Each structure stands twice: as C-alpha cells, then as structure tokens.
Amino acid sequence: MKLWLAIQLLTLRLSGASLAGAEQARLGAPEAEIPVARSKPNIVFIITDDQDLHLRSLDYLPYVKKHLIDQGLFYKRHYCTTALCCPSRVSLWTGKQAHNTNVTDVNPPYGGYPKFVKQGFNEAYLPVWLQNAGYNTYYTGKLFNAHTVENYNAPHVRGWTGSDFLLDPFTYMYLNATYQRNKDAPVSYEGQHSVDVLAEKALGFLDEAAEEDRPFFLAIAPVAPHSNVEIKNAGPNLNDVFDAEFTAPIPLKRHEHLFKDVKVPRTDNFNPDSPSGANWVRRLPQQSQENVDYNDHFYRQRLRTLQGVDELVDGVFQKLEEHDLLDNTYIFYTTDNGYHIGQHRLQPGKECGFEEDINIPLIVRGPGVPAGEVADVVTTHIDLAPTILDLVGAPIRADFDGDAIPLSKKGLQEAAKFRHEHVTVEYWGFAAAEGDYFDGSRITINNTYKALRIISKTYNFYYSVWCNNEHELYDLRTDPQQLKNLLHADEKAPENVLGLPLTKVVARLDSLLFVLKSCKGQTCVRPWQALHPAGNVQNLHDALAARFDDFYETQQKKVRYDRCELGQILDAEGPQFERDGLVYRHNARWDNWV
Questions:
Q1: Is position 434 within any domain?
Q2: Domain ranges, residue 61
C-alpha cells in the first residue's frame, strides 16, 4: 500500500499537481502545505521603484554590474504592463493583468492596498503559494500604495513569515520613513535614510532565513529612485485623495557629491523641437533651458539615490556568501515601472506607454542561468509569478495570464522558436508631473489607454488606442525614439509597412489588441489562438496572409472607448472580444496552410 501511494505521489509530482490541487489553484482555494527540504533553491527578489532602463541608470551601479549583469542574464525586452506602482506590483505578485486584478490605481476606489484586499488577493498571491510549497517568506520595503499607518492591521498583509513594510503617508519620505514589522505597531525612522534602514532590515532577514531549515524567498523593495513625496493636507482617512509635494529624490550624504556633470541622455526624443505622440502628450510645450537644467539635477539625484541600492546589492551578496547560500540562490533584480525625464517634452514621471516607461530592467542570476549574457525574448512582469513557482517546483496556476520566463540556455533556445512576441500594455486614469515644472495642474486626467508591443526579427511595433479614441502606431525599426505617430493626421505616414498597405497591418494589430485588452489566462499568452482556433496562425506574420484580409479589415470589431474613466468600468471600454469578437471560420482547403 505504501509503495502504491509513493508511486501515485511521484506521478502527481511529475505531472505538476493533483487534480484536486489543480482545481484548488483554479479557484484560488488554499492548498495543503508541502514539506520541503533546504535543498530547494532560495530566491532573493529586489524590486526598486521607478527605475529607468532607457535613461541608463544601470550604467551607474557598479555592484549591480559586478554581481548581476556580469554573472547573470539580462533581459533586454522585459516590460511592465501598467506603468504605475501599485497596479504593476499587484500584477507582478498575482501573475494577472491589471484588467483581471481590477487594481488599476494607487488609491481607492480603483487601487491601493484596500482594493488588493477587497479583490481577494491577500489570500491568493505569490507568498501564500510559496508558503504552501514549503518556503519561508520575507519582505521589507514598499509593498503597495495606500498601505498606511491606519490600515496596516485591517487586515494585516498575509503570506509573509517575516515582514517590515514601509507605510504611507511616509513611504516616499527618505528622511522620515515609517516601517511596520510583523504585527508590531509602526515605528518612525525620522532623520535616518530610508534605504540604509531598509538595508539593515533586509540583511537581518537573510540572517534569520539562513538559520531555518527551510528554503526562503526574500523580497527587498527600496523606494529609490522614486521622487521624495511629502503629503500635504491629508484627510481624516489617509486612503482619501490628498495633496502631495513631489521633489527630487534625496540621496545618502555619502553620495551627494557624485555625478556633478551628468545629464539626462540627449536622445532624439529628448525635448524635441516638434511635438510627438497623441492626446495630451502632443500638446506639451517645449521645455525651457531652465526647465531642462532642473530636470538634469533631478536625474542626478536619482542616480545618487540609487547608490544606496547598489551598496545594498553588494551587502546581499556578501551575506549570501557568508552563509554559503549563493550557489543555491536565484537573485532577481527589477523595478515596478520605468521613468521618463524630458522625452517627448514630458516632465519627470511615468504612466505613459513609451519605451522609457514600460521597458524596464530585469536581471536574473542563479544556478544554471547563463552568466554575462543578454536575452532578447519578450518577457513581462505577468510572467514572474509563474517563473518563480516553476523554479520551486510548485504547480503553475491555470488562471495565470503569463508564462514562465526561460532561465537556462536551452530554455532560451526553445523560447526563440516558440515564445509569444507581444506585451499587453494598459492604463487608467491620471498622469502626474513629478518635478518642479508643470503647466497649471500637476495631474492630467484623461490618460486612459490600451496598447500592445509586438517584437520579432522582422517587425517591431507599438500600437495604442486612447480613451478619446485617438490612435498611435510607431514602427520602432525605423523610429526607435517613437517620434513619428504613423496614425496622426499631422504625420506623413508611409503607404506600406512590411511590404503591405499600412491599413492591413493596423487591422491585424487592432484585432490583436481587441483580444488582449480583456483576455484571461492562456488567451493572454496565445491570443492568436482565440482568433484562429485551427491553430494555423501563431504570430503577426501568419496573420498577415491575404486570405485573412476580409476577416480583419471588415468583419472584426474595432477597439474603441465609449468614454474616459479613472478606473476600469467595462461599459466605458467599448466592445469586448468575449462578447463581440469573431473567430476565423476557415475553409477546409486552407487547413494545412500557415
């Protein structure tokens, strides 16, 4: 009997999960905890706040280069799917697009920690699943916005063996941070620099984890290089909308003198002479020299503030070596979203669909990960939860919107042939100017849009539809700085793209976005399958076949909004694929065509 049971358990383990476990995963029900030996890999996950890739911040982090870039795998096409802190982090920890979490803002009613709890994710996100897989889990730093000194225990955040969270309204105050450990009362660290406080807490958790006989997951979340934010005129409930003063980040004293001559990279899209983009972005005035000088200062302060994070990274590796854990530990380094300073005439901030805001750092080092190499597969934050569960041998949930990221050389070779080529990008609500220069209001309201990125060896597009129904299309092969919106009336667009009429390419992109803007589960990974169930279309190249012209150009509904809203309200978002979309009804004689 015992032998039979052992064989059954082994069979279920090899298949990924039992039927009951799969049903539990599908429904989000709690799973039985699995005893795990220390031989399982440990994971350290470092997530900065608002760190850029395209402004070259990584060039100024020598320890990140030494320990991670030179010894790990850099994913040059890694994307967040919502360029805003809280929605991006919720998507990362749940493996779901923001349109499926419905956490789309930093504050209630559309976002923040209270919305995360209301949506049921406090019982169904990565640390809970890792604990079920036998892991000890630790977290220090910023978790979510609107996680405050008032609501930190209503309820407490679940899933963490040990935690020490930054709390609003002090999260972004570098010299007046408040942390809250486990279930203790919040503690103020006024006068101490938040990043140094965080480093001490993170290394302490590493010591604690090393003493246990279980593998561990440790998340470290400094606020650097986010703006320094001081809350003004907070209401009786700190979750309410409040006034805030955004200023340049504040570095540690020992780094204040660095990079005195460094400036924002003067790319073609930096404060351009001609307007670019669509909607409110296209109406931005060119920045004055005084404005540009201030933004260069803002940029230097970001680089200086990141030096504390760089030292933290070095401390983590020293501690892993001290405990003889480095060879059995995966280290992830990423950020929640990117950042722009001056590109397209934008003041410091994020929330846009440009590459500066969505194409972000991801570096992974660990057992079997190629050292010092660059991967060009398309990856997203939605893929990180399945990646980590795959690493620890836990079941991959059926409701994930992403796919595990290849970490080995063999995995990368396979991904080059079969991995998806698209990213779903989405945003609701506002855009904020974070520097000292802004025209009238710091906040722009009608910044709601749906978009996609699609990249292969032969094409490279960004396509978006705004809530005012303006459209954007950039061909990044010929316009990497995204200066020429091919769908704007003021631009002279080419008649042909990829050797085909531009209208034919746009029709395919629109139909792909039509699926992605409301997709769920594996449809988000394989959207062409939803349009072509026969399986004869796997990518944009296949979809461009002439026999599909009528299907895409005349039959399929188009992406549109009925109105602009500050959050996800479905009746404002036009037709939905599940209700209004069409499936290609192929002729039998084309069955074997690709």
A1: no
A2: 45-422
Coil vs helix vs strand at 550: helix
Q: How many domains does the chain have?
A: 1
- Identity (one letter) of the amino acid at 174? Y
Q: In a 3-state reduction of DSSP, which class is residue 417?
A: helix
Look at residue 50 and tell me if it is in a domain: yes
The per-residue pLDDT for 233 is: 62
What are the φ and ψ backbone dihedral angles of 338, each rounded to 5 degrees? Answer: -85, -155
Q: What is the DSSP letter of 274?
A: S
In a domain, 578, yes or no: no
Query: In whole angstroms, how large is the CA radius of gyration of the chain?
Result: 24
Q: Give the Å distances, CA to CA, from 286 to 111, 130, 262, 344, 357.
A: 33, 49, 21, 9, 20
Residue 90 lies in a domain: yes
Q: Are 201 and 164 contacting, i.e. CB atoms less than 8 angstroms apart?
A: yes
How far apart CA 500 and CA 543 sit, in angstroms, is 12
Tens-digit pLDDT profile for residues 60-75: 999 999 999 999 999 9
Rounded to whole angstroms, how far apart are CA atoms 485 and 508?
17
The CATH number of the domain where 168 resides is what? 3.40.720.10
pLDDT tens digit sequence for 72-109: 999 999 999 999 999 999 999 999 999 999 999 999 99
In tens, the pLDDT along 235-283 reads 444 444 457 899 999 999 999 999 999 999 999 999 999 999 999 999 9
Q: Which amino acid is at 206?
A: L
Listed residue (328, 333, 397) closest to 133, CA to CA: 397
Residue 85 falls in the annotated catalytic set: yes
Q: Is 21's pLDDT higher than 50?
A: no
- Choice among 80, 85, 519, 564 that is catalytic: 85
pTM of the model: 0.92
Contacts of 214 (CB under 8 A, 6+ apart): 36, 38, 134, 135, 136
